[in-house]
Amino acid sequence: MRGSDEMYASVPSPVGAAAELSWPKARVVAVRAGRRPLGVERCPLTDALGAALAEPLAATTHVPAFDTSAMDGWAVAGPPPWRLREPADGEGLAGQPVAEALDDGEACRIATGAPVPAGATAVLRREDGAAEPAAPQAGTGAGTKPGTKAGAKPVTTTTLRLRPGVTAPPLGRDIRPRGQECRAGEALLAAGTLVTPAVLGLAAAIGHDELTVHRRPTVELLVLGDELLTEGPSRDGRIRDALGPMLPGWLASYGARLTGLRRVGDDRDALVAALRSSRADVVVTTGATAAGPRDFLHPALVEIGATLLVDGVLVRPGHPMLLAELPTAELPETAGEKRRYLVGLPGNPFAAAVAAATLAEPLLRGLGGCPQAEPYRVRAAAALAGHPGHTRLVPVTLPERGAVPLRHDGPAMLRGLALAEGLAVVPPGGVAEGEPVEVLDVPCG
Ligand SMILES: Nc1nc2c(c(=O)[nH]1)N[C@H]1C(S)=C(S)[C@@H](COP(=O)(O)OP(=O)(O)OC[C@H]3O[C@@H](n4cnc5c(N)ncnc54)[C@H](O)[C@@H]3O)O[C@H]1N2
Ligand code: MOO
User: Are 202 and 224 members of one domain?
Assistant: First the structure.
């Protein structure tokens, strides 16, 4: 059984490949490993969600594409009152071709989103005007000018007036002019921008059916451990797998495309076979990072000829985390550029989260062509205790007064993390109340 100082335990590197790195250095190694994006592809809009744009996103059309009514009411030309034109079929409705031009002193009905006819100087909102049919005139039908020929431009003597107390709309009122938001050819988003649902909406609005994006790194998640249950409460010495449900969302938020989740028992040969058979750009494993009797990750990596880039990090929790470059000989020639990695996350769930934020995030962002997350600093609302020689990652909430540490932040706990808005990066020695501290985002999508 581990004592209360389990967070500060130290494990020598089991294969002695590399000394444990400081937390900032480990991040730099992960950023460097991912510094060249994997490739570029063109795909339909819906497949682009979560990828990064590989080229600036330019408008294919002006937006709006035509002068558009912003309100339901009437398009009017010149000062009031106006002669109200009888609408032709569908005239003035959204989705209809633009209505015939207005002469000065004329008005026609118009709906929100409908094209504004030439000659219109403003849109008068429905609630601001009143149409008054003229008195019937002998032999002509109600309100129709004498002498109107069948098939000629419909002319009416119905008058549109402002309601009492309403002033005449100034020039351009409630008309969204063509090109107000952007002009055809204008670049609206820079290469590297993450394709979010809003970006998909914008891309469609500016006329795109497909996007050119960086290929998202494929990730296979290997959840290791005989003791793990996939349903019900922990029992009989076995515990419920918390990382299978948690990590896919985290990895997706880093830009990964999860291609599979495999469960592998505490068996070295099975792990070697799983690593050899995976075709993912990045394999993420959970557990088996330490030097326990059934922790087979290091020996398996040695057996398949992997190169350890990070083998332990001076951070609490999560220090046995590792990053390795995998051999690529078994990939088909068609696989494109051959580069594969493995991120080994410790089995303790909060330790695994810290390791994901430390190594998986920068690696996956880089491989997927996403810019690295900008570090940001927040004042510590309370003192953040530090380890004498290692960095600590502490779950925090971020109210206006600053970063507030959460309880239940032990390596095996998720209670603090589930409430966290960020992970404070507490350097060795700690952070005094009121001092700035770097904060990493906690994925919430
Ligand atoms: N003698 C020492 N033992 C350990 C040390 C040490 O310094 N000396 N370090 C401890 C630290 S720190 C960590 S972190 C863990 C790392 O362990 P492993 O990565 O080898 O993971 P396991 O041994 O497989 O599991 C550890 C722990 O986590 C539970 N676990 C595993 N997978 C899951 C999962 N998917 N969901 C929920 N919980 C999981 C597992 O049952 C164990 O309780 O090593 C310490 N040991
Ligand atoms: O303290 Mo361990 O590194 O649980 O992560």
Answer: no
Quick check: 352 and 284 in contact, CB under 8 A? Answer: no
Residue 398 within a domain = yes
Pick the residue whose CA is nearest to atom 1 on ligand 2: 317
Place of tokens 């015939």: 100
The predicted model gives 403-428 an average pLDDT of 97
Alpha carbon of 346 to ligand 1 centroid (Å): 6
Ligand 2 centre and the CA of 300: distance in Å? 21
Mutate-to-test residue for ligand 2 from 1, 2, 7, 322, highest number of ligand atoms within 8 A of CB = 7
- Total number of domains in the chain: 4
Q: What is the pTM of this model?
A: 0.84
Are 187 and 255 found together in one domain?
A: no
- H-run or E-run covering 438: strand 436-441
Residue 14: per-residue pLDDT: 42
Residues 201-247 pLDDT 10s: 999 999 999 999 999 999 999 999 999 999 999 999 999 999 999 99
- The interface pTM score, or ipTM, of the predicted complex is 0.97
Q: What is the dihedral of CA 283, 285, 291, 296, to 10 degrees?
A: -70
Domain contains 1:
no
- What percentage of residues in the chain have a pLDDT greater than 70? 89
Distance CA(260)–CA(203), nearest Å, equals 30
| Domain range for 405 | 376-441
CATH number for the domain that contains residue 201: 3.90.105
Percent residues over pLDDT 90 in the chain: 82
Average pLDDT over residues 361-372: 96
Q: Is 20 part of a structural domain of the chain? A: yes
Top mutation candidate among 348, 350, 414 for ligand 1, by most atoms within 8 Å of CB:
348
Is residue 384 one of the residues assigned to a domain? yes
CA 30-34-39 angle, to 5 degrees, is 165
pLDDT of 145 over the 60 cut: no
**Do 294 and 431 share a domain, yes or no?**
no
CA distances from 185 to 63, 176, 428 (A): 11, 19, 51
